[in-house]
């Protein structure tokens, strides 16, 4: 079907409620101000520019307007939209919009509940954040698949209190879609967003520390992975009792895992993974309190510098499905209580300093050798080293066995060490005798006397 060009005169259709002119080549609308009953207008995929808003003044009943995939550019004057007093949904996706200007005396669009700004490029995110005050009554804000640049900066948070869901998310944060170019530190203004439920700042260039004042009680999901954040997690999130997901992978956090993580009763997913394996990595022991997070389903503490033993309290993680403690410096034995974790499908303790026999019951019969590699003193299936053949005792048979704390001797290592020491002594003696003739004469005299008398 041939696409329509030019202008239309639709004023005779006074009872028209829905009008779909999408996927054409319109550059202007002409006269449609007479469509007083029009509620839905779809102008997607045309060639409309910013002047289109002056053609919409008479559409006082309009509730839904789709201007996606057009040629809108730069700043949108809110004066042109304000005439649409009943507008509830606005889609400006796939344009080059980067700001909204609200003239003095023009109030925010109090009926607008849904705003879509997907697939746009924002060169100055700070200006965009400030201009969002024009939509302070939003309930749903779609800001996905964008290329965002600039520093987050600070803002006047007072206007954001009326924004019910993702508008608050936009104010200061913006990143529902990864791979943006947000940079700079996270401002402390974020602490004013007490009603925030989802925070996604992943895959940007954010640096600095997480503000210690940021612990909203209602937040449920936090994604800050793949940034350049650093410092210690001393107080951030400590009061976020509703937190379900905490993803801090691939950053530069240092210090110990904070004790408050064990007090987050709703937490089901924790991901803490340092990007710099040579320095600036989490250290210290794993808090015993982490085992109190009975709702947790995935725990990833890999690629850090954690020491100490695997907490016995991990046996309380009855719902856990994935436990990754690989690439640390953990020691001691794998707690026998972990065989009670019937939901455990992924278990990885590779590249640590664990010792003793691998548990055989429960889900541990399903894990392969990769889960344990890099622990030279672990033995038992599925590893090729049998505990009996390596000289170790049958460990982990009793939680009260004092021998668990003593480890075991690798006999092969003992024999090799003994031979090397013996050869070193012989070579040392031979070297001394070859250098000093007086000592060499005394040595042979000693040997002669020993043979005569014995």
TrEMBL record:
SUPFAM superfamilies: L domain-like
Topological category with respect to the lipid bilayer: Single-pass membrane protein
Keyword Chaperone among UniProt keywords: no
Family matches, as PROSITE patterns: LRR
Spans traversing the lipid bilayer: 413-435
DNA damage listed as a keyword: no
GO biological process annotation, one example: defense response
InterPro entries according to UniProt: Leu-rich_rpt, Leu-rich_rpt_4, Leu-rich_rpt_typical-subtyp, LRR_dom_sf, RLP_Defense_Trigger
Major localization listed first in the record, in broad terms: membrane
GO cellular component: membrane
Keywords on record: Glycoprotein, Leucine-rich repeat, Membrane, Repeat, Transmembrane, Transmembrane helix
Entry's localization field: Membrane
Highest taxon in the source lineage: Eukaryota
Family: Belongs to the RLP family.
PANTHER family according to UniProt: RECEPTOR-LIKE PROTEIN 12 (PTHR48062:SF21), RECEPTOR-LIKE PROTEIN 14 (PTHR48062)
Name recorded for this polypeptide: Uncharacterized protein
Annotated organism of origin: Fraxinus pennsylvanica
């Amino acid at each position: 079907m041939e696409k329509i060009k030019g202008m239309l005169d639709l004023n005779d259709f006074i009872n028209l409620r829905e009008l779909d002119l999408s996927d054409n080549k319109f550059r202007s609308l002409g006269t449609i101000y007479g469509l007083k009953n029009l509620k839905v207008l779809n102008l997607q995929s045309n060639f409309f520019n910013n002047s289109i808003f002056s053609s919409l003044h008479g559409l006082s009943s309009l509730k839904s307007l789709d201007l996606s995939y057009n040629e809108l550019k730069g700043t949108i004057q809110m004066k042109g939209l304000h005439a649409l007093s009943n507008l509830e949904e606005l889609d400006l996706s796939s344009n080059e919009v980067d700001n909204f200007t609200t003239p003095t005396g023009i109030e925010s669009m109090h009926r607008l509940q849904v705003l879509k700004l997907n697939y746009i490029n924002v060169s100055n995110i700070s200006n965009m954040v400030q201009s969002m005050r024009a939509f302070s009554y939003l309930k749903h804000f779609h800001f996905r698949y964008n290329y965002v640049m600039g520093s987050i900066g600070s803002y006047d948070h007072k206007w954001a209190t009326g924004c019910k869901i993702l508008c608050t998310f936009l104010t200061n944060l913006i990143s529902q879609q990864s791979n943006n170019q947000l940079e700079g530190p996270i401002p402390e203004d974020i602490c004013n967003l007490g009603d925030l439920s989802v925070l996604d700042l992943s895959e940007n260039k954010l640096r600095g520390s997480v503000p210690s004042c940021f612990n909203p009680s209602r937040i449920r999901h936090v994604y800050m992975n793949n940034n350049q954040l650093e410092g210690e997690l001393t107080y951030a999130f400590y009061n976020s009792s509703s937190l379900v997901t905490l993803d801090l992978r691939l950053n530069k956090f240092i210090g110990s895992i904070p004790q408050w993580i064990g007090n987050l009763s709703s937490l089901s997913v924790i991901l803490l993974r340092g990007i710099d394996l040579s320095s600036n990595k989490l250290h210290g022991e794993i808090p015993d309190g982490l085992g109190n997070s009975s709702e947790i389903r995935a725990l990833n503490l890999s690629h850090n510098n954690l020491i100490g033993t695997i907490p016995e309290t991990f046996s309380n993680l009855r719902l856990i499905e994935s436990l990754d403690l690989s690439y640390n410096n953990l020691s001691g034995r794998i707690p026998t209580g972990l065989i009670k974790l019937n939901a455990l499908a992924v278990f990885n303790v590779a590249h640590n300093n664990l010792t003793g026999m691998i548990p055989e019951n429960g889900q541990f019969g399903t894990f392969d050798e990769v889960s344990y590699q890099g622990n030279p003193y672990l033995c038992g299936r599925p590893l090729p080293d049998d505990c009996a053949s390596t000289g170790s005792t049958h460990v982990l048979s009793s939680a009260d066995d004092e021998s668990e704390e003593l480890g075991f001797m690798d006999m092969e290592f003992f024999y090799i060490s003994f031979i090397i020491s013996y050869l070193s002594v012989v070579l040392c003696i031979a070297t001394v005798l070859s250098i000093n003739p007086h000592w060499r004469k005394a040595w042979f005299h000693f040997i002669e006397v020993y043979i005569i008398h014995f």
